[in-house]
Fold these 4 entries.
Entry 1:
Amino acid sequence: MATLAGRLEALTLRALEQIVGDSEGLSAQIAPTRDEKHGDYQCNAALGLARRLGRNPRELSGELAQAMLALDETGLLRTAEVAGPGFLNLRVREEALKAALKGIGDPVRSAGRRVVVDYSSPNIAKQMHVGHLRSSIIGDAICRILEHLGHEVKRQNHVGDWGTQFGLLCAWLLDRGVEDSRVDLGDLEALYREAQALAERDEAFRERSRERVVALHQGDQPTRETWRRIVGTSLEHIGEVYERLGLSLTLADTRGESFYNPMLAGVVEELQVRFPAGSRPMEVVEDQGAVCVFLYDEEGQPRFKNAQGEPQPLLVRKSDGAFLYPTTDLAALRYRVRDLEADWLIYVTDSRQALHFQMFFQTAREAGWVGESLLEHVTFGTVLGPDGKPLKTRSGENVKLAELLGEAVERADRLVEDNESDPARKRGFSADEKRDIAEAVGIGAVKYADLSQNRSSDYVFSFDRMLAMEGNTAPYLMYAYARIRSIQRRAGELPHEPALTLEEAHERRLAMHLARLDETLDQVVSGWRLNLLCEYLYGLAGLFMKFYENCPVLGAPTPEQRASRLDLCEKAARVLKVGLELLGIRVVERM
RNA sequence: GCGCCCAUAGCUCAGCGGAUAGAGCAACUGCCUUCUAAGCAGUGGGUCGGAGGUUCGAGUCCUCCUGGGCGCGCCA
């Protein structure tokens, strides 16, 4: 079932075609009205087209209205009225609105693509910190939305398990012969700091670390064994954080950098053979011992320049022979297109990596490794502290994700306790319920605060704001849901196939908003503007609250209205639940 | 130097070229003997950083400027 906006657009285009006699360059310009006085949707097509045709906009708009009403066999429109300079205000028929609400919130059936979403990507041997928060939350929401829209999603957690830091760690552990003892993550971090400090003052240790990297990459048994243990310990910790965050990402989705190690030499070699020095628009040359990819535009000018104004290369092999991040990315891309047969690749990383992705994408395209796949780099800004600088602890360290989530839940728990100690608000929750609510509210608040921001800007992290029960926050939305569920519990049996009666303005507004879920999702996907879904849900919760205040459900004037309102409640609950779940946020039945 | 991002109410932020620029917080005023007051209703608060331009129409697009963040050869 197409969305109301989609159907209106199709109808408008048919009408325009009839008027103009040509479909070239026509645009329906359908948008929801900002003010309901203007109807449900507006069509702004006549305004622009009038000039092109040398006609009066209001007159053209009137003709468009007539044509649309005449062509409207499905009974979509109640009215189409010209307003202002030539706007066309459209009002949807009651029956069409009710039909649009059928199955609202159900997964969309579409010819899906196979999408690889690369997100989260923490480093092994370090605790997850606030720097991993946005990629994890945003990437997970993207996966859920894609699946809801009928796409097949392959999650890929490209963890850093292969870099130089493992040389340090392995060298340190093997030097001290601690390979048999169990090392937990807290130890690992301390060890890493010690190893780093040692490397700075001890040339011999530095050398041993470098040798360990080589040994690791060459498959040396004891080194591999130590490495595996480090990785295992870290993944355990990462899995715990994911579980608490409620991510749909699992250990099975982990394909660390090490996975691509056997492919790296081949990637570089192929590039070198196929794009020797002098090739355009891409050449691969050795410079100061490093293998560099240089990219050029159609005019043969360098696409990228460095700070000195010289051509900026993508480095795929260091002068010491080791491979780099771009090399792994290229290998991973090839694997995802060839082996995972993905035709859409999405990378979720902070915006600082934008240049890297431009170069890496361009290299992959020039090499012909992308095929027909879409490449998308979804970026986001930095999480800031109250001082407007990247969020750190007082001692200047990265804020641990586990601690941040713990504090969010703790604060939510205090809120629940406060309410329970107030006789007017007490609900009589059991200890288990309280814990569950605190967990859902605390974690949900953190995720929602992130997703409701415009992705590209930095944002200031604040427990107080995200846990506020009013405003555009997760608790507010969850509360709206809990209120509906409370009504439903009191209602007893819910009506089967009730007929909606949308006589009250509050009822109709709520219904119209509910019907706009799918078109909102369409907008969300174009540009991954996840905050639009948040805004939609906030609007929905607000409309429900107003409906709640003005339209008694259980005490409705007639049995028909009671049934209708119960059905509206059910649909609102469903959309709130589905919408929040698409964002990776869990609802609770009571709060 | 080049490139990317940002600048909107006192604060935190929305705003796909369309009608009077919106929320929340903070301030003030009402509403719990009626389905969860973690709520609702209302009041005040704006040279959309500046200057040009494109357009029937610009917070939104283009150019320049100012101020801030980030990135730019062997980290990832």
Entry 2:
Amino acid sequence: MKLDTYSQSTPEVAETNTINTAKTATTEQSGKDFFVQNTCKDKKDSEGHGVCPLRELLSRLGDKWSVLLILTLARMPGERARFSELKRSLPDISQRMLTATLRNLERDGLISREMFAEVPPRVEYQLTELGVSILNPMREIVTWIEGNWTTIITSRETFDKKNPKEENGLQ
Amino acid sequence: MKLDTYSQSTPEVAETNTINTAKTATTEQSGKDFFVQNTCKDKKDSEGHGVCPLRELLSRLGDKWSVLLILTLARMPGERARFSELKRSLPDISQRMLTATLRNLERDGLISREMFAEVPPRVEYQLTELGVSILNPMREIVTWIEGNWTTIITSRETFDKKNPKEENGLQ
DNA sequence: CTGAATCCTTAGTGATACTG
DNA sequence: CAGTATCACTAAGGATTCAG
């Protein structure tokens, strides 16, 4: 027997509540909506493309090494370096992940790859124009993080203190 | 029997190669290095903090819903909305993920949570000052993605055409 | 040197059902 | 309404080994 205590809406607070539900939808161009709004599925279409650009690109930038790799490459002379240099600059990255990340970034056109048919193989990676163009927005995020990191840490500590659950975070 | 064909460095191309290895390290403040450089481990210290702020925050922004949620909240009047409104705005998110993402963002201090002890429970979430402050850098990334999305798609297509492997991407 | 191939572990995510 | 709890699945990531 389900008590109806928590039905759709109680008499006194019908439909629209304290906070207005504000159909502000029309105030935004529906172009933006494509990126943020409802229709944003992660399913791939017939071509194999993701259908949510924002989410897909974001998750690329959010993956473990892409940003670090781009920033590392940006610090190299000519925004250019070879495989082993990158490996040295990011000691914690596994060879497998370095290869894979480079490959994905190349696929997206952010870096270019040049292979030299020498006896000890040499491969050089370089930020493309597209890759360079993302540096500024990227650096703004980095700057923001640098500037607010301690604030965030503090926030976490007080939060964890007030919520002394076993384990925090996802799951 | 290992042939020594690929030893450290071949005679004619010793140590420093075509591309100079440029110890440009000194040209960068070592503060930056903390974020990008070698010492960047993902291990947690005794307190449970990640030791690589950049990576950690980036992966938060890169997770499936954080950015979408922040942007959605930013579009609400007063950068404020209740749980069910957010759920409606992001129909594809599961309740579990909405709860978890909101919780993480609250923990980081990007959003605040206010609970009302009413009979049908009401909880309102709002971007904090910190949360609002990340909107601009975030929007720059979004803008960049919007502006370069088709370029990236094109790049991927040509790449996949030239590399007709079974499946691309990681793994 | 620069990868590719395998194997394996686990974190992220979704579906579903239950609760105050 | 706003969550929690469980379970199950997948994909991301690491370690290691093999190869041109």
Entry 3:
Amino acid sequence: MKCCLAARKTRVVYATLRHADAVMKTSYPLPRIPVCKRFHLLEIKGDISVPDIRDVAQRAGCSIATVSRALNSPRQVRPQTLARVQAAVAELKFRPNAIGRQLRGERTGLIGVMLPTLGNPVFADCIEGIEAALGGTGQRLVLVTTRYDPERERNAIETLLQQRVDGLLLTLADAESNPLLDDLAAERVPFQLLYNDAQIRPAVSVDNRLAAADGVKMLIDAGHRDIAMISGALHASDRAKRRYLGYCDAMTMAGLSPRPALEIDFNAGARAAHVREALAQRTDAAWCPTALFCSNDLLALGVMRALRESGLRIPDDMSILGFDGLAFGELLSPTLATVSQPSVDIGRHAALRLLDQIAGRTDGGRALILPHAVRMGGTVKCRARAGAGVTPDYVA
Amino acid sequence: MKCCLAARKTRVVYATLRHADAVMKTSYPLPRIPVCKRFHLLEIKGDISVPDIRDVAQRAGCSIATVSRALNSPRQVRPQTLARVQAAVAELKFRPNAIGRQLRGERTGLIGVMLPTLGNPVFADCIEGIEAALGGTGQRLVLVTTRYDPERERNAIETLLQQRVDGLLLTLADAESNPLLDDLAAERVPFQLLYNDAQIRPAVSVDNRLAAADGVKMLIDAGHRDIAMISGALHASDRAKRRYLGYCDAMTMAGLSPRPALEIDFNAGARAAHVREALAQRTDAAWCPTALFCSNDLLALGVMRALRESGLRIPDDMSILGFDGLAFGELLSPTLATVSQPSVDIGRHAALRLLDQIAGRTDGGRALILPHAVRMGGTVKCRARAGAGVTPDYVA
DNA sequence: ATGAAAGCGCTAACAT
DNA sequence: ATGTTAGCGCTTTCAT
């Protein structure tokens, strides 16, 4: 084995020396410098290249099997041997190669996370929750963002599966009609959706429809009658769709007429312009809302800015309700009224469920609906009317 | 080869069937179900387990080398053969195993990203920039957060290196005294720092000291004389330290006395309480600032909230200057004055530099300093005094 | 308690 | 243009 080892080393060393021809012939085949030997390669004195388990074994005077055991189940090896191995590991600065382990083992310890963007703090918070749950488990996160682009979603999932992640945590633009999920289910890939509330899927979310309805009901209770909803492209987001349904529910329930949603292309940069355009539509019509339900907080912020630029005051000329519960909303003045969802918990629970699923303890389950909360705020004006009865208390 | 293939399949199938003893004996060794065979395992009809390159080869009637070539350099194979391989790939839903490739190849296509937290939008923005730069290159992100904890930093780097990432993008709590960086450099691991401006390192950042000085100078120009700086634990963050130096520079330059920084433990949850405590210190002293320079925007927001809870008005009773340039700051009223740094660009440039470095086109270089900008805002009151001369225009 | 060896999926050198 | 084969680093089975 010793000579074999030496040969291996020799090859690698010469490989670094610009593939010196004479030496290349001496061994077969001569691969390109492999990933595991990338660092240190040009130091020709003493120990060369990144040490592997065989180097450790040689140094400790035992077999690679023993080294492996010393690393993974130390109690299986004699204390004396263990000490020698540990010494060798330290001296060589041996760093176990996760790739070798992953190729051999039944798990990679990788979790694929796919989100639309990190520009929305909702998703950043969610990752914090995921990391918190993964905490000590030693799982690593592979992160991809998709910008709500179905094409990118498909590619990203494919990439993550090629990387053999143990499971996926994902937010799709639209989970309802998405064949990708059937594929994942058919392939038995453990996954949990985040935010998408497709009931039949393993998912962690709020009940978007109900939450939106609760929010709009709050507006109605505050005396508003003409309420419009504004959202990103409805067809592209199942959450927007559900929230729109919730808006309709609340309006209908109160005997009011829901209006078509004002759609704003989220991905287009010129947000303020689009908002003004949508508002122009509104102005043209005979109908004039006193309150705007925005399908998410980021949109609400953009809308508020656009309204102010148009000279409208909030909430006097227009009340605003968002959705998400961004912490920043509370720092605004007036504070942003919003329907808040527990982003950190969504991430945390999804990660925990995924771990259970990966471990085979569950099959992933169905949708887990977490509680939402309507957060009153200064962006909503109470058009106090005696007729409406008791004003309910909303959760802060 | 055919029988060999069959044997392999058989083994795997039976392995899923709870390690049926009689069959276990027939082949050697019988590994645990490897990672690549995790999905589909329990379907006993038809094709079983995840296909590998040999399955494709068999189906296409060629060798695995040909399949590999068809996948990686299609023009090297005869169109007819290529078609057969592609058909086989499609029929079997073959998904190349990145782990095998990584083990064999000289690169993993993995980029390790280590950041303190995603709770601060600065870092989320930075990731957006990184992703934008990585765009089409097919590199994947492995993400770890450290909560400014040196212990976690060490572990995270070790984990990422075990995963054989091609390079690292990282923000350290304190890069200056950090031996980890020497280790990385010694091991020839390509890396770029984000935000840390340790000049001798490969890093992308603003000049924190100068930027802070510019910000404080703005305060001085606005007529403030008693200016305090408030920050997270100074010893834990090189940026906070440099920004404090910048504060001192500007004060001294104007003939004013810099004060010791009011330190607030960032990681401790009870932020408002800590702020009040720090302010109490201030009140006890004879000295009373009219302006507060906060070492980052998130801190500024917390401070503002605490001040308001204490009944102080901003900017009338106290002016506030932040650092970071969070987009949210512009939505507040009053808008947050801040020293903005180009987070997205920091991420983008660092990623680009890292790619060059990985490709061997550069050695990583030294610090790249990007331009900062002082953003005036409503949180700063102009104590207009005729004596100060011309009021400069600050970049919006 | 330890060692020998097979093989995870893939790529590339060499041979044909 | 295609096939054969070694081997990347590791874990685990079986044998000792």
Entry 4:
Amino acid sequence: MSTQSDNRFQAIISHAKEYGFVFQSSEIYDGLSAVYDYGPYGSELKKNIRDYWWKSMTQMHENIVGVDAAIFMHPTTWKASGHVDNFSDPMIDNKDSKKRYRVDHLIEGFAETLTEKGETQKAETILKEMDVLLAKEDYAGLKELIVSNNMKCSVSGTCNWTDIRQFNLMFDTKLGSVTDEADTIYLRPETAQGIFVNFLNVQKTARMKIPFGIAQTGKAFRNEIVARQFIFRMREFEQMEMQFFVRPGTEGEWYKYWKEARLQWHLSLGIDAAKYRYHDHVKLAHYAKEACDIEFDFPMGFKEVEGIHSRSDFDLSQHQQYSKKKMQYFDADVDSATGKPYGNYVPYVVETSIGLDRMFLLILSNAYDEETLTKEDGSTDSRVVMHIPAKIAPIKLAILPLTKKDGLPELARELMNECKPHFRCFYEEKDAIGKRYRRMDAIGTPFCVTIDHQSKEDGTVTIRYRDTMQQERVPMSKVKEIVLQQIF
RNA sequence: GCGGAAGUAGCUCACCUGGUAGAGCGACAGCUUCCCAAGCUGUAGGUAGCGGGUUCGAGUCCCGUCUUCCGCUCCA
């Protein structure tokens, strides 16, 4: 990373705090690692992003409905989803190189080199033994397997290993007052399962026909080993996801559809397409048929902001198996190939999953700008401006009487009362007008209206646009409409 | 988790080899009424991240700890 982008990231983090977007959690107690709070403007922006997503998914798609599932779920949910097994990876460290490995990766890597050397038989034996030991969670046995086969660290070349430790990425807690093993429940590590377990409830009550989607936003929790880069990777975060249920065999075309549709959503916010790219997964998770990330050019480089996954019928089938409840849909549409209805099947799923906090960081990163301005007399000036899309800006309109006497505040208050039921407004009469403009630039307010002496005479005001700094004179009675037009 | 760097006012930072904590910007109250911040007056705000040690004396030296950024690692 260059020093320049490094500084830019630092500047954005400072700005986020100074102007009430993001604070570190429990800061007065030295903070809590990788946990953050959203401040007055941050909570507003975050809510606006969420609402914009929600509207685009549900209101704009007649075949997508929402749910709001609980964070706590039955423990078996996470067995079915595979999180209990796959989200707790045993790890081992090399004491010399300080390098950490996932135990299964280390052993698989070793087996691979054996295979390359032609010792296929031995490699298979080791892998089999590993599977048995992993299933038993026999960490001493696994370490013995590593040591006895003289598996070396690729960096230090030594065999000086620590004991194997378990890192469970799911937070657990106790349900009920009695502390008992059986009462251990998890804070959901993803929101998707709340959709899958409600699949039939939703389908039946909302009378949905395939293809249809279920959307949800909400908190999820992961006990990351390393969580860093400001709000990019947090232990408590919010997801916005939509699971789209389709007839098996059509998942390919829907995957393609959503991959394109989701990028269009990002571009609809007016963000430069050159800052986005797709990253198609080559190595797929066991359940996935196709998967890609939408990546954004953050100050620290291109990083994932959203994922689109073709998940097959993995999730619903798993829940069907573990719950012993049918997760089927009866498709009455006639298959032209057979002339008969498609009948009962477990639907396939195409998922779109976006991190709300990451989207927030994306907006901040994209919006933050330190501009150098040349004044009329040739001298230079600077301003920090947040080019937040007007649709999601925390404050839409600032109403600023040029002076605080001569009846201007009264006039400004009239406009304030007219506009504030419709969108978030901000009233300010303190300090010079230029200073007030700069303050609004810093929190990304797209429109400022100034009430001056002429306003009293002819009922016109000046509206000033954040990005261009241009002003135009308009009737005060039109202000509400002008703003409404640009925020929808 | 390992390694590197850092933590002093809301922000950016200063305080040189240990000697009772400062500036600029910002905020607040008032003056000014000025259409693109940094005019005037006044005010508030820090037990120098936290804990311990050395010392007559620690922001400064040592140890621990927490937090942040960077690299490695991790990211079903």
